[in-house]
Amino acid sequence: MNTPTAPATAANTAKVWFLNGPNANLYGLDANKTYGSESFPVLRQRCEAKAARLGIALNFVQSNHEGQLIDWIQEARGASQGIIINAAGLTYTSIPLLDALLSFPGRIIEVHMSNIWKREPFRHHSYISKAADGVIAGLGGDGYELAIEAMSRLIGKTA
Questions:
Q1: How far apart are CA 52 and CA 125, in angstroms?
Q2: How many CB atoms lie within 10 A of CB 128?
Q3: Degrees, nearest 5: CA angle 158-140-92
Q4: Is 151 annotated as a binding-site member?
Q5: Using an 8 Å Cβ cutoff, are 157 and 54 in contact?
Q6: pLDDT tens by residue, 106-127
Q7: Where does this protein hold substrate (predicted)?
Q8: 99 annotated ligand-binding residue
Q9: Is 123 one of the annotated binding-site residues?
Q10: Strand order in the sheet with 107-112
């Protein structure tokens, strides 16, 4: 589990949570390179740098526990303009995660490192998509950065 990045204090800084689900902390360690070769800490650094360039205070976190992800979604209510989420394996199974996202009043982007529609059939249905304004999949770490850029536009923040 990672602790949230300390948000900037400027009044005009947008706040966005980037939630990563189970096993995302193992990115870069997969022999098949399904999720690319970048480690999770490197991916986090890329995302934090992108967010900083766009004037976004990013809380980039990861948990292997569904309840922790739900707690963070609830914490983001009223404190964040957007949530970017890679729910990982919970994407295909978690109705409680969907319910939490549906209660979030801001913008939501679903992101996946791999193209979930080119993988096993059980990965072709996402519960998270019902709550998301958009989905980015199959672009690896670049997709994470694109999600931050898209969120910046959705919440009205420009570089």
A1: 33
A2: 23
A3: 100
A4: no
A5: yes
A6: 999 999 987 777 666 756 679 9
A7: 86, 99, 113-114, 123
A8: yes
A9: yes
A10: 56-62, 14-20, 82-86, 107-112, 134-137
Contacts of 110 (CB under 8 A, 6+ apart): 85, 86, 87, 91, 126, 128, 129, 132, 134, 135, 136
Residues in the chain: 159
Sketch out the chain's domains with CATH numbers: 14-156 (3.40.50.9100)
What's the pLDDT tens digit per position in 10-34? 556 789 999 999 988 887 767 666 6
Chain position carrying tokens 């570089």: 159
142 is in an annotated binding site: no
Residues marked as catalytic: 35, 112
Positive or negative, the CA dihedral 19, 23, 29, 34 is negative
